[in-house]
Amino acid sequence: MCTTETRGPAATGTCVTVEHPACTVEDATVESMTFHRVHLDRGRNAFRAIEAESEELYQTAQVLLDPETGFFTSEVSELLEYVGSALLVMDRMTLDPPWRGHGLAAVLGCEVIHRLMAGCRAIAYSPGIADLSSQRLTDQAEWDRVNTKIAQGWQSLGFRLHRDNVYLLSPASQDLEEQRGALRGRLAELGASWRKSTS
Fold first, then answer.
1. How far apart are CA 139 and CA 143, in angstroms?
2. What 8-state DSSP symbol labels residue 168?
3. Which tens digit of pLDDT belongs to each residue from 13-34?
4. Nearest to 87 by CA among 117, 59, 45
5. Strand positions, DSSP E, 39-126
6. What angle do CA 75, 78, 79 make, to 5 degrees?
7. Which of 72, 142, 161, 196 has the most CB atoms within 10 Å of its CB?
8. Model's pTM, two decimal places?
C-alpha cells in the first residue's frame, strides 16, 4: 500500500503578468490531501494490510474488499470496469478555512485523482467533515447540511454511494472526464475573480 500526501497549490500574489514591475508573490497553502493506493495483486492480503493501517481505511475495506481473498467483493467487481487492479482511497482532504465554500475541493481533488488513478480499478471516498474545530457545526441540522453539500460535490465528479457512506468512482467514468473541463473553467473564473479583488 502506498500513501501519497500533498499540499494543494499555493495562491500567488497580485500580478497578472510576469512583466508586471511591482509583482509581489505571496504563498498561501490551500489544501492538504492524503491518498492511499492499495495494491490488490501483490501477494499480501489487501484487506489485512488496510486493517493494520487505520480505522477509517478499515471501514472502507469492510465495504469493498473480501476479508478472505483481499480482492474486491463480487458485488463491487460487478460495478466496475476492469481498467486496472488497484484501489485508490481518498482518505482525507482538508481545505484551509479561507478557501472553503468556493468549490475548490472538487477542482483540486479531480486533478489529483487524474494524476494518481492510472492502474486503478476504483477510487473510493467517504465524504464528511474532517475539521471538527468549527463552532457553527454544533447544530445537527447544520452538520447534516454541510455533509450533504460535501457529498454532492463529489457526486458531481461521478462518485456514487455504494454502501455505509463509501462512495465509488470508476476511472473509466465519463462524468469524471466531462467534469474535469468544467472544473478547470470554474478554477479560471475563481482565479480571475481573486486577482480582481486583490488588485
1. 6
2. E
3. 333 444 444 444 455 566 688 8
4. 117
5. 86-95, 120-125
6. 95
7. 72
8. 0.76
**Amino acid identity for residue 75 in this structure:** E
On the 0-12 / 13-18 / 19+ scale of CB atoms within 10 A, 78 is: exposed
* Domains by residue range for the chain, with CATH: 2-198 (3.40.630)
User: For the sheet containing 2-7, what is the strand order?
Assistant: 2-7, 31-38, 86-95, 120-125, 166-169, 160-163
| Residue whose C-alpha cell is 447544530 | 139
* Cβ within 8 Å of residue 35, ≥6 positions away: 3, 4, 5, 6, 88, 89, 90, 91, 112, 116
CA-closest candidate to residue 72, choices 37, 47, 43: 47
Helix (H) or strand (E) holding 6: strand 2-7
By C-alpha distance, which of 197, 158, 182, 19 is closest to 79?
A: 158
